[in-house]
Write a structure and sequence with these properties.
This protein is an alpha/beta fold. The chain contains 9 helices and 14 strands. The strands form 2 sheets. The protein has an 8-stranded mixed β-sheet, with helices on one face. Helix 4 packs parallel to helix 5.
């Protein structure tokens, strides 16, 4: 594909779609907001006018018939992701889909196999996988800034009782799929190993979805990890990576604001000193990195994004299935 401005279609016009529309508008040399579809035509028209899309539809199928579409961004309920991904792929449309990738690993494998078999681009939009903070942390670990890693922990929780879909099992609700996916991905990015065992404690709501999950993971390379996630209240959102010579603290794993590096005191290993602080700033709002990588992948003829390969999306869905089992 020659380097040009790509036409983007939005399948869904919910809350997160507004944030992504703003981000796409911040990359005018890469993307053009072309079409939006919602089951509610009034919602689609309002979205179109607000962000200056060319077209609005009340039918996903009708929108996808347009051969001028270069990329479809999906932001519907998690339980609908598989059907909407397949709808796009069967119209030969490249897809960027919001997290969680699908409702379960079986669905993930189905859409991945179809995309690979038909050589159509498919990627998961989980912004923390694409952010510069990931490369900064990896560089610190490779430089042996804290020594050999032995333990990672993270948490993420919000009081989000006003979002009805999160309390519906049929819509893929629950803490794990909506917010727990972030601490799980945080840990997965820096372990570089397979999970050997999982221990889970969780509190369920009357609707059958998980309100709070506490998860212990042991990896084949010996790293132990723990995270918890909840819909019940706001948590610190911090992440820690512990090494034999110190530790790294990440303030707000869902959108890293600051990285702090601590090293053991030379005289006494019972204390750690803050030796360096790295502040994180975004050019737009943090969502731009996944869009820039998606653009480069499409222009370069790639069928997935290097920062979140399809095998990684499948791995995360397999782990979520085990945690919720």
């Amino acid at each position: 594909m020659k380097k040009r401005i790509l036409n983007v279609a939005f399948l869904g016009a919910g809350k997160i779609a507004h944030k992504l529309a703003e981000t796409f508008l911040g990359l005018p040399k890469m993307f053009n907001l072309y079409s939006v579809a919602s089951r509610d035509i009034n919602k689609a028209n309002d979205f179109k006018e607000k962000y200056h899309f060319k077209n609005a539809y009340d039918s996903y199928e009708e929108m996808l018939k347009d051969d001028n579409i270069d990329l479809v961004y999906i932001s519907t309920a998690i339980s609908l992701h598989k059907d909407h991904i397949m709808l796009c792929l069967k119209h030969n449309r490249p897809v960027l889909v919001e997290k969680s990738f699908t409702n379960n690993a079986k669905e993930a494998l189905e859409v991945i196999n179809y995309a690979k078999g038909h050589k159509i681009f498919l990627a998961e939009a989980i912004w923390t996988r694409y952010m510069s903070s990931r490369n900064i942390i990896n560089s610190l670990l490779l430089s042996n800034a804290i020594g050999e890693i032995y333990y990672i922990e993270a948490n993420l929780g919000y009081e989000i009782r006003d979002i009805e879909r999160l309390y519906s099992k049929e819509l893929g609700g629950g803490a794990m799929k909506d917010v727990g996916v972030y601490p799980l991905n945080f840990i997965d990015m820096f372990t570089n190993s397979k999970v050997k065992s999982i221990k889970v404690d969780k509190k369920l709501l009357d609707t059958g979805v998980d309100e709070t999950c506490s998860v212990n993971l042991i990896y084949e390379n010996g790293v132990i990890a723990h995270f918890f996630t909840t819909l019940n209240n706001a948590t610190s959102r911090d992440g820690f990576i512990y090494g034999k010579e110190g530790f790294i603290k990440v303030i707000n794993i869902n959108n890293p604001e600051r990285i702090e590096i601590y090293r053991h005191d030379d005289k006494s290993h019972n204390y750690s000193d803050l030796i360096s602080t790295i502040n994180i700033k975004h050019d737009i709002n943090g969502y731009e990195y996944q869009l820039i990588e998606t653009y480069n992948s499409l222009i370069g003829g790639k069928k997935e994004n290097p920062s979140m390969k399809l095998d990684e999306s499948l791995k995360i869905m397999e782990l979520i299935d085990k945690i919720l089992k």
